[in-house]
Amino acid sequence: MTRIVADWMQRPETRAVCDILAAGGHAALFVGGCVRNALLDAPVDDIDIATDALPDRVMALATAAGLKPVPTGVDHGTVTVVSDGVPHEVTTFRRDVETDGRRAVVAFTGDVAEDARRRDFTMNALYARPDGSVIDPLGQGLDDLAARRLRFIDDAEARIREDYLRILRFFRFHAWYGDPSAGLDAEGLAACAARSAGIETLSRERIGHEMRKLMAAPDPAPSLAAMEMAGCLLPVLPGASSRALPILVHLEGAVGAVPDAIRRLASLGGEGAVDRLRLSKDDARRLSLVRDMALGETGTADIAYRHGADLARDAILVRSALYEAPLPARMAEDIAQGAKARFPIEAADLMPDWTGKALGDRLRQLEDDWIASGFTLDRDTLLARAAAKDQ
After folding, report:
1. How far apart are CA 35 and CA 112, in angstroms?
2. 348, 374 in Cβ contact below 8 A?
3. Which residue, 11, 17, 91, 83, is CA-closest to 48?
4. Which residues fall within 8 angstroms of residue 218, CB to CB, at 6 or more apart?
5. Per-residue pLDDT tens for 183-195?
6. What is the pLDDT of residues 285-341, one digit of tens each?
7. Within 13 Å of residue 378, how many CA atoms lie on the same side as its CB?
8. Computed from CA positions of residues 193, 198, 202, 204, in that sequence, does the dihedral angle turn out positive or negative?
9. What is the rounded distance in angstroms from the CA atom of residue 60 to the CA atom of residue 299?
10. Of 28, 72, 74, 206, which cross-links 80 as Cys (Cβ 3.0–4.6 Å)?
């Protein structure tokens, strides 16, 4: 029997949640991502537990044991049980009664196989008992996971019609867990292409969440190329192109840059990414700056001086990817030089000879001269230039 051994399974906080369910006469099965990742020896961030206990029963058991139950999704069977500060999503076995591509009406069941059959991919329909023994109710998940083969459960189009977000999840999960040398499952890819219009029905928050996760994968380029080929990128970002992404991923590796979703989104282009992906203000500002600097002609050191070393590196990486050009030979040195440079003149140094708009214009001109000199003009030289009012 396949068994997982993981530190998170033995944590007292997690054991406490399993123990209250077992003591109440109910199943407690780890499910989904925590089981999949444990089998792959990958990090586990969230712990999901499936049970035959109904939500009210879960809440009662948790309260009696001094744990904190939070009814985060009771209508869908989910109670978040907080054990000593650690959240665990506990969800009753369920089956879909009605779906519309965005949300589902569910009925609770005592059958783990029914619960497994309503999930998206075979590798996500794996369960584990608290002792680590793995249950594969559909008899497909373990083999597919071992082969890094991402497949929809049963009929791919049927799974997509239940929730159109599964189209984006198909590409995202392949980028993280699929075998890139084997390509994407043909049936699944065809189903995504056939149902791509359904992406338009999804909220922009859900789309943005999936796209950021996809673009943060170690190498999302093969998956994104397949997504574009299947007509599933256009509904997400009109006008976007995956052409530069594989070059960018290669360049990132060359300079040791960690995967970054915003940097990679900047290489795609497209219309209205900020709004269509519901980016935060910080991410929106960074995306705009990286894209603008990459498409412009501002020098590496200048970008680093004005926007910092990290943004300069990202902009030059994207610029080289977009124009299929080698990285500048002195990129690292220029970034370091620009990032540490400090303009030696302040507005007060030019007053009272210069005031108002003329002061701002003169200060900017001196700064431009200083940058153009490679940050070599010293304070005295700059002040002398400022004194030459007709220069």
Report:
1. 15
2. no
3. 91
4. 175, 176, 259
5. 899 999 999 999 9
6. 999 999 999 999 999 999 999 999 999 999 999 999 999 999 999 999 999 999 999
7. 1
8. positive
9. 63
10. 72
Q: Which amino acid is at 116?
A: A
Report d(CA 47, CA 87) in Å as an integer: 8
What does the DSSP 8-state code read for residue 102?
A: S
* Whether pLDDT at 269 is above 50: yes
**Residue 390: pLDDT over 60:** no
Cα–Cα nearest to 235, from 165, 162, 156: 165
Packing angle, helices 204-215 and 221-229, rounded to 10 = 140
Model pLDDT, residue 345: 87
The structure tokens listed for 3 are 């068994």
Q: What is the pLDDT of residue 76?
A: 86
Rounded to an integer, what distance in angstroms lies between the CA atom of residue 236 and that of residue 355? 49
Burial class (CB in 10 A: 0-12, 13-18, 19+), 355: exposed
- Amino acid, res. 15: R
Distance, in Å, from the CA atom of 347 to the CA atom of 244, rounded to the nearest integer, reads 42
Helix residue spans in the chain (DSSP H): 12-23, 33-39, 55-64, 112-117, 141-146, 156-162, 165-177, 186-194, 204-215, 221-229, 245-255, 261-268, 273-276, 281-295, 300-307, 309-322, 331-340, 347-350, 356-372, 379-387
List the structure tokens of 324.
């299929």
Closest Cα to residue 267, out of 242, 301, 303, 297? 242
What's the whole-number mean pLDDT along residues 164-187? 95
Output DSSP code: residue 258. P
| Nearest alpha carbon to residue 48 among 29, 67, 61 | 29
